[in-house]
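Renewal narrative, Specific Aim 1. Our central claim is that a sequence can be written position by position from structural information alone. The example that follows is taken directly from our test logs and has not been curated for this report. It begins with the structure tokens describing the chain, in the order in which they were read.
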């Protein structure tokens, strides 16, 4: 990668992992970057490390700018190993550096790496004088882990936001305006849905904390640096944080012998007849992370499974357990499916939907496979659900 300068004395020194396709269960068809930034002021400061296999690459990038031994501070905004597992390698090259982090961060680094570095624990309002700039620390607990924080470089007005505002996308260009912005925004939404959605209620507070600051760039720990579309991504975060969504419906289902599929397609027709955009995903073929991206901005979710062994198909279980953890806000859902004798899938799906915070409407079930009359009932079920979306705020 060619050298990338964000501002006077501020450089990108991170790593681009073009070939990673799975980030703890979240599909990353465009790869992942682990962003680190080097500030060369009167003091030298590294913001975050990278994932361990890329430690040599990070150190080599730093060495092209300044001898790594000259690093005075390593700010660890977040201890998750994608940002900290190269820290031991960095510290071996910069043994005099202080490691700046939150109290939770310190505990985590000691536990992960068994090292007692020269730690400096920071809290809200603390700042580090680098010379021309001061670096201000803003703990953002649970965005993404309890240790997480952001750092703000006041002279150059750069917010190093760590996981917040990230996207999993590799390109040869490091700024938003040098890339296809629709692809960047799609990946930012997918990232939010799959990583940050459980922490919705914290997003507004975090944005309030940073909104009073003049910000020329937001430099996250994944993906591109925001400099031309800051207002757009901040307003998207406000929208997602509130759980505000659109009048659209996601229909996610799986099928054994086609009966539940037949229901799903007819239900989809009903939703569409109400004038509501809808998308259909068969979970044995669909990418769960993409379905969750679609659910992020959808008011309505319909899930379908036939009954297998008194429960739902494992593909639907995987989606619903994942959604239960992500806890999407302000969404209406219902379950449908075919059964042979006792049933069970519908109740299991409804239980998981409720546990995930969905408001659950009455669903629809069909014995063996839907006849013409039952298919009409499926259509009417979809139509009523679609009309309900029209009535939602
Ligand atoms: Fe990119 Fe929570 O680590």
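The sequence written for that structure reads:
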């Amino acid at each position: 990668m060619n050298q990338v300068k964000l501002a006077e004395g501020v450089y990108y020194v991170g790593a681009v992992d073009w070939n990673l396709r799975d980030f703890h269960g979240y599909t990353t068809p465009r790869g992942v970057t682990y962003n680190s930034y080097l500030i060369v002021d009167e003091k030298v400061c590294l913001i975050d490390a990278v994932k361990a296999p890329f430690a040599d690459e990070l150190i080599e990038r730093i060495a092209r700018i300044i001898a790594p031994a000259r690093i005075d501070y390593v700010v660890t905004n977040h201890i998750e190993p994608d940002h900290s597992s190269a820290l031991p390698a960095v510290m071996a090259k910069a043994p005099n550096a202080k490691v700046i982090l939150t109290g939770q961060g310190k505990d985590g680094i000691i536990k992960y790496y068994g090292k007692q570095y020269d730690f400096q624990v920071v809290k809200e309002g603390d700042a580090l004088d680098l010379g021309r700039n001061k670096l201000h620390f803003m703990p953002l607990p649970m965005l993404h882990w309890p240790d997480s924080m952001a750092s703000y470089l006041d002279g150059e007005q750069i917010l190093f936001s760590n996981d917040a505002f990230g996207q999993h996308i590799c390109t040869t260009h490091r700024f938003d305006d040098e890339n296809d912005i629709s692809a960047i925004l799609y990946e930012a939404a997918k990232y939010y849905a799959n990583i940050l959605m459980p922490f919705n209620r914290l997003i507004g507070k975090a944005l309030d904390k940073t909104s009073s600051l003049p910000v020329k760039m937001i430099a996250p720990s994944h993906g591109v640096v925001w400099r031309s579309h800051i207002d757009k991504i901040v307003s998207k975060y406000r929208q997602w944080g509130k759980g505000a969504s659109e009048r659209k419906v996601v229909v996610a289902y799986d099928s054994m012998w086609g009966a539940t599929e037949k229901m799903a397609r007819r239900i989809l027709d009903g939703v569409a007849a109400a004038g509501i955009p809808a998308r259909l995903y068969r979970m044995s073929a669909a990418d769960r992370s993409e379905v969750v991206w679609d659910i992020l901005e959808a008011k309505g979710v319909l899930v379908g499974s036939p009954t297998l062994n008194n429960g739902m198909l494992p593909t639907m279980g995987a989606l619903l357990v994942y959604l239960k953890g992500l806890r999407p806000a302000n969404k209406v859902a219902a379950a449908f499916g075919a059964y042979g004798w006792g049933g069970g899938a519908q109740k299991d799906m409804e239980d998981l939907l409720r546990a995930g915070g969905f408001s659950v409407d009455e669903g629809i079930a069909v014995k063996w496979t839907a006849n013409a009359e039952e298919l009409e009932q499926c259509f009417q079920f979809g139509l009523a659900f679609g009309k309900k979306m029209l009535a939602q705020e």
